[in-house]
Amino acid sequence: MSDVTVTGVMRLDSPARCVRATACLWLAALLAPAPTAAEANSVDRPLEEVLVTGQHPGPGLWKVTRAGDPDGHVLWVLGNYSPLPKKLTWRPTEIETTLRASQQVIAPPSISASVGPLGGITLLPSLIGARNSPNGRRLAEILPGDLYARWLPLKQRYLGSDGGVERWRPIFAANALYQAALAQRGLVPYAGVWPQVEKLARKAGVPVHDPQLEIEVQKPRAAIKDFKRMPLDDVECFARTLQRLETDMDLMRDRANAWAVGDVARLRRLAPVERATACIGVLLESSLVQERGYGDLIDRARLAWLQAVERAHERNVSTLAVISIDELLEPDGHFARLREKGFVVEEP
User: Fold this and answer.
1) Which runs of E-coded beta strand occur in the chain?
2) From 8, 52, 234, 306, which residue has the greatest number of CB atoms within 10 Å?
3) Residue 180: CA atoms inside 13 Å, Cβ hemisphere, count?
4) Torsions phi, psi of 75, nearest 5?
5) One pLDDT digit (tens) per residue for the chain, 348 residues
6) First CA to last CA across the chain, in angstroms?
7) Cα(10)–Cα(21) distance, rounded to whole angstroms?
8) Could you tell me if 197 and 78 are in contact, meaning their C-beta atoms sit under 8 angstroms apart?
9) How far is CA 232 from the centre of its chain?
10) CA–CA dist 348, 328 (Å, integer)
11) CA-CA distance, 198 to 200, in Å (whole number)?
């Protein structure tokens, strides 16, 4: 039995993840904003709320079977969660036991963008300035007055006096603020415990299948050029991010605590302000993305995961799958789709 400390890696704030941020072009600037000095220095500040620390098991596993299956195949599903406390130590005893009996692990879905050999490297200069507002407009000129007034104290608190962010598009400024706020509160975004599950699976010799959605970006330089001059309807994303930081920081702490101790019922009750959908939707609904046929990427990634777990359940006696716990708790989420296909889902 081993203890695994939760760490963070770059992930989309959604059920999907971009495995090559540079090659994801216009998504790269959103996913990996350069940290400001205030953000870098905020990580070690004292926490303002009490977060769980020490060893915790997380939630139990959902058990998925098919009625009348003569072979008794079973799919075990771990609900991943983020942001989690940086100092939380996850004790994966149940995962280790499950892995010993499993033939495959299904990863959360990923999105991989291809731009050709060395494409990501050669495109880096083109990405410079992609975060900046077209025509050089500042946030004070773009945002409604009341929204900008709400931004100023939050910016001062989490980003300090950094003036460069004032020239960014609202969606990128909101993302920088959100990441800095999580860091200051001792929370690690995106990855949850998936990196540790993957490491345990490889140590146990269990194959890991990544339901990866691969896309090929045609004329990437032109795409970046179009993005730089394209307006974005991102004020709602900005507003929801501020709302979450104003009202949901305690809620994020409570959800992290509930996940750590395996209180699924409490997680179900604590619904956060949804900022991810609004922010990702800004990009997916933009003309640039729609015209290139990428507007349904998230839906396609979800479908790829569902198809992967169905195939694994049919083939393997035991399979372990990992997905965002929010996907599992939604009434019309993944489990609803599996029940429609005759699967039986038992909660932890």
Assistant:
1) 4-5, 17-18, 54-56, 62-66, 74-80, 84-85, 88-90, 104-106, 110-114, 187-188, 208-209, 212-216, 318-324, 343-346
2) 234
3) 26
4) -115, 125
5) 444 433 323 333 333 344 333 334 444 433 333 334 443 343 333 333 434 555 677 788 999 999 888 889 999 999 998 888 887 788 888 999 999 999 999 999 887 766 655 455 555 566 667 788 888 899 999 999 999 999 999 999 999 987 889 999 999 999 999 999 988 888 887 778 999 999 999 999 999 999 987 777 777 777 778 778 888 888 988 999 999 899 888 888 888 888 988 888 898 888 766 776 678 777 777 777 777 777 787 888 889 999 999 999 999 999 999 999 988 888 888 999 999 999 999 988
6) 21
7) 9
8) yes
9) 21
10) 12
11) 5
Q: Which two tokens stand for residue 129?
A: 């300035």
Strand partners, 111: 18, 213
Strand partners, 324: 80
Question: If you search the block for the tokens 């509930």, which residue do you land on?
Answer: 258
**Cβ contact 227:26 at 8 Å:** yes
- 106: nearest Cα among 298, 305, 299: 305
- What tokens does 63 get? 């058990």
332, with CB counted inside 10 A (0-12, 13-18, 19+), is: exposed
Give the span between the Cα atoms of 340 and 343, in whole angstroms.
7
Instruction: Enumerate the β-bridge partners of residue 88.
Output: 54
Tokens of 211: 């339901």
Tokens standing for 125?
A: 């200069």
The answer for 262, left when phi > 0, alpha when psi is -120 to 50, beta otherwise, is left
- The CA–CA distances, whole Å, from 38 to 35, 155, 176, 183 equal 8, 10, 11, 10
CA nearest 55: which of 5, 91, 8? 91
Q: Please state, in angstroms and rounded to a whole number, the distance separating the CA atoms of residues 20 and 112.
A: 6
Q: How far apart are CA 145 and CA 28, in angstroms?
A: 29
Phi, psi of 191 (to 5 degrees): -75, -30
**Locate tokens 């029940």: which residue?**
339
Report if pTM > 0.85. Answer: no
